[in-house]
Design a protein that fits this description.
This protein is α/β, with parallel strands linked by helices and 206 residues long. It has a single domain, classed as Rossmann fold (3-Layer(aba) Sandwich), CATH 3.40.50. It is built from nine helices and seven strands, in the order βαααααβαββαβαβαβ. Strand 2, helix 6 and strand 3 form a beta-alpha-beta unit. Helix 2 runs antiparallel to helix 3. The chain is globular and about 45 Å long. The two termini are 14 Å apart. The model has no long low-confidence stretch (mean pLDDT 95).
Length: 206
């Protein structure tokens, strides 16, 4: 068995979930600034995550669910996942984003499972709090290691795909390390670099 792990925001999906939400509330530029600093490794991922979510305190749950169900997926995402599964890969999504986006995407794109964070709502509104499985800069690496142990899959049979600094921790546990339209900090550690926004190019390296 082989394992493929994809990041969600700016990898399987074109853009950052929180920025699509922030656009509705006219704080897109501020949100983008914090996101960029985190993806470039300039500020701690946990700090950036909690800061960005706190900016959306009071946002309507129904509006967020609607936005997350209509996100634009990256060219080739569905086809690449389908092809990897045909080749015997278990395909997983790790996201520092939110299950409000990754769960609907699972049904559309066809990956086998998702591990992400959870926005906290109360009385139909965001409280500004967040929790979950992908809160820290090393969360993806730790989860990948656990999955490999559970499924008895080695680094040799593992492919990881990401774009930002919080994907770095996965690279220690995978022989195929894809930087997809990525920040320089990730490209430095990758052995497959794809700068064209088409995920199907990954198949050329399998």
């Amino acid at each position: 068995m082989n394992l493929a792990v994809f990041d969600f925001d700016s990898t399987l999906m074109e853009g950052e979930t929180l920025e699509f939400i922030a656009k509705e509330y006219n704080i897109e530029e501020l949100m983008r600034k914090i996101t960029t600093e985190a993806m470039e490794g300039k500020i701690d991922f946990f700090e950036s995550l909690t800061k960005r979510v706190s900016l959306l305190k009071g946002a309507k749950e129904s509006k967020i669910i609607e936005i997350c169900k209509n996100l634009p997926y990256t060219k080739g995402a569905k086809e690449t996942i389908s092809e990897l599964k045909k080749l015997g890969y278990k395909v997983i999504c790790f996201s520092g984003g939110y299950e409000t986006a990754t769960i609907p995407a699972q049904y559309i794109l066809g990956y086998d499972a998702q591990f992400s964070n959870i926005l906290h709502f109360k009385n139909g509104e965001m409280t500004g709090n967040v929790g979950g499985e992908m809160m820290f800069s090393d969360s993806k690496g730790k989860m990948l290691k656990r999955l490999q142990s559970l499924l008895n899959i080695s680094a040799k049979n593992t492919l990881v795909v990401g774009d930002g600094a919080n994907d770095l921790s996965m690279f220690s546990y995978a022989d195929k390390r894809v930087a997809f339209c990525a920040k320089p900090i990730l490209k430095e550690k990758a052995n497959i670099i794809i700068d064209n926004k088409d995920l199907s190019e990954i198949i050329n390296y399998i």
